[in-house]
Amino acid sequence: MKARPGAWRLAAFFGLSVAWLLLSCGSASAHARLTETYPTNEETLAESPEQVQLLFSEPIEAEFNPLKVYDQQGNRADEDDARVDPDDARVLVGDLKELPVGTYTAEWRVTSLDGHVVEDAVNFTVTASDVSELQSDDAGTDVEGDVDSGLSLAGMAIIGLLGLSLIAALGVVLQRRR
pTM for the whole thing? Predict the structure, then answer.
């Protein structure tokens, strides 16, 4: 069976079209990820922070108490004034009361641009001793495994489809040469 002349061009055009289509709409399917926090997750602070700040990978919407900070007994430790930073729609900010020594949990719940609700919590400890010097120099830039340093599922799917398109185009070329 002999391939039609130009069939490999058609296969290559199809493969490139699929790749372009997938690459152009790949980011629309992703939702906001927490990329940075202050205080960082599991951080120990020598003094009470004035705010909790959460930085997301894209602008967010925050309604209906998007950030709540609780002490070890389950009492609210924030000022109940969480808001999106007017200068950066990717940042959620909440003011804190003066926090005594103890462990605190900051629970957040926001809506991504794509409409998905994302939520999680960050824990931190306030202590009277000066253990903040023991923290790493990059404190404030890491979130417990939430920073996306690799390919997303959509990215891997795109690479897989590109590979399949390349194999199909190669198959057409090899078939033509027989």
Answer: 0.59
